[in-house]
């Protein structure tokens, strides 16, 4: 079974968040689940994923468990409601986790969820890759802190500014408030985009909004303004929301008489849950609104409270955080969470997709309804990282908060990867890896000033789980990559190509490639017109130890690999909006997109289908628009879930310097 998030959809004048589940071998067997919030949709995805893992574990034990699971292999949702409930109860027993919908009920419920909140933020403000931001607080207004990025200004660019506040509600609830365009609600907190209407939406994670704005609230004698902007939202695997807002043009809303068409300042919202001290404590989250300002008025206002800046749209955008904070604080209902998930079966027979059952309405059990409601009484087991800095004699522990100054004090020596000593077979003599024997279509660069090339940086720019992570959530700075990046191919293909390692012209099939003990091939399939494929080849100088975490990954099942294959991105140089869209948080690729694995001879190939996720497609589309000006670092590792797998180590890294799309080489199967 495969599960995919479909994003937001409007059904019967109501926004719902849809996930689709289907059989990978037979896609005619499918269905959809509609949830009231994006957070609850995430919990369903996690529940299905956990159920798959539990089923595989039970199957591995063999015997009666195999017979029992084979009898329950197909869940039939087309029968009467009592049968549906019986299967739902079986799913509840199968899941037994601290996340996801554990209790399925027919009627709606408004019970208070007194368990721990959803999607706790794991790590600090800068994620799992180190960023060179120097945020300085310049003003505090109504409980909202206003920061500017001093490092960005020193680099000669516009001033990067953000407003930060704590909202007494979960990240899911705050996201719903920001994303909804209901005028009555927005009038209570939004002074800029209160008069908004939805023009169009795409793939559930991207929409276009038209807004009318009366500047009389800022200054006198100005005509009314209107603007069109796009909103693109992403939810990270840690439950953090990112909303990107860009000025846009749409044929449905051309400029009209009496209004001055304005380009709204590009901005981003970031909403992340904060850790609770006790289970009884209400949820809270950190809300950040960030934008870039090119105005001399900012500097005057910063020094002397220059009033003219307070009459600009950028200033009004910053103060949206203050309005949002006060609005949520004045509504105690945000401290309580409700759930009214609806499930639909037999999707192919229902042309309009999803619908729901009115709250509190009695449904006859014999009626052939397509939906039933679900109440979530779950809790989240994740905990965030500690806020205090620590430096151990054996490991350098750096807090993920603001480490730009800490980097300068660290030794430039590239340390050996911690925890990687037993990964490769020490009883075998290492072979000499000569990268000059392997020539890919993308050349190796001569430094960061070079373009359209690749390099292999140290893993010191990435934060990974330390030896004691399961006890104290401490992360350590990565060391030298375990595997050597020997070649990179940048290919142009008509459609996504799997199993590149079996192609006769592939590096793996060359004579030097066959002599290497082990090669890890990672093929990133980039959806576009045309499609692209970035292939990374990592080599080991000795065979992989079967008892190591890498050995278990290489020879494990696909579900085992999906749960552990992790990538950490970092935009080292580039447009700040792209940096916020990509982020720096580690991502389990097997849970975010479809990954296909091929284990043959001396290599393992991982084909990463970025186009399998609507969210990933939208983000990669943004990245491709700026790719010629970006320097991108990627780190690849295996997530340590057990104490024996810790500390983590960086498998491999790559730095992509200002890649040119036209340089991709055509690849024919």
UniProtKB/TrEMBL annotation:
InterPro entries according to UniProt: EDR2-like, EDR2_C, START-like_dom_sf, START_lipid-bd_dom
GO molecular function: lipid binding
Residue numbers spanned by region Disordered: 371-394
Domain of life: Eukaryota
Residue spans of biased composition, Acidic residues class: 378-392
Residue ranges constituting the START domain according to the UniProt record: 135-294
This protein's name: START domain-containing protein
Natural source organism: Eutrema salsugineum
